[in-house]
Design brief:
With 148 residues, this protein is of the alpha+beta class. It has two helices and eight strands; from the N terminus they run αβββαβββββ. It has an eight-stranded mixed β-sheet with strand order 5-6-3-2-1-4-8-7, covered by helices on one side.
Amino acid sequence: MNILKPWFIIIIVILKISPANAGGDYWSVKVQKKAVETDATELVFLLQEKPRGILTGCSSFIVYVNHELVPMWAWLPFVSTSHPTHKETINAIKFLNSKFSSTGDTFFGYIGGGMYKVDGKECTYESKGLRLEQENEKHVVFSFYDPV
């Protein structure tokens, strides 16, 4: 029985240091500026609805996108990840750019811990990937950061 105790502690430690986030939210937004279609760009939005959740107090917000593999060992062939690919991130940016002069609804949000606040900057966030998805007949661009 003493052999199992160290393994149990190791498993608990691994589970504690492996971040996993669930949930998320999205908002109706207006794209304020066309983004450079690369995996490192800046998105600027004007909220089209009452701010809630992490955007409480913001009428507009900025998201700095810098695509990264999450987790960092996701390049290994036996590791699966739900994080957006480079291509998915570029496609989401292209979609947002197509909505720049649009009067229709545009939706942007996050999955899990998908947007991290930039220290010292109000209404400014970081993202490590974007994915365009369909949610209840709406096209929504979701931001990802941590593993989901």
